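Schema walk-through. Below, the input block comes first and the output block second. Nothing else is stored per chain. Lengths vary across the set, and this one has 168 residues.
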Amino acid sequence: MRESEELFDVVDDQDRVLEQLPRSVVHARKLLHRAANVFVFNSVGELLLQFRSATKDEYPQCYTSSASGHLSAGEDYAESAQREMNEEIGINTPLEWLEKFPGTPQNANEHTVLFRTYSNGPFTFDPGEIERGEFFEFTSIDKMLREDEEQFTPPFRQLYRWYRENYD
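--- output ---
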């Protein structure tokens, strides 16, 4: 285990904690773990997407949620969402819990909670995580997905499609 490597809660299909293991082990073994995602909307209803940096170990140079990340061992979904939002895009706004999704191979084996918030910025993007961030209208994201869905992370595709079906 690398010295600074995060510990994750490994969970079962009911999201009950089984044990705690290093990030690299959880990902290598494809074990169920937890993540939080935040969709940030501006005042005209556009969704902020981050374009992941080339150095990310999973899905480099892909679009994904405004802010997202794994829960650290012992952390709850809301705490993680606030932490990731602050670390990745530099804002601290109230979050609305929208939905919880079970972990599957299609969403990187992550039990995931989707949160929503609103902000026009300013944003401070973490250069180690994010190459750039920009707001998009839904019609633009829909078109980008039709043209090449691989430019988006699998977890984002699941969350976005659910959001469009339930909040459109």
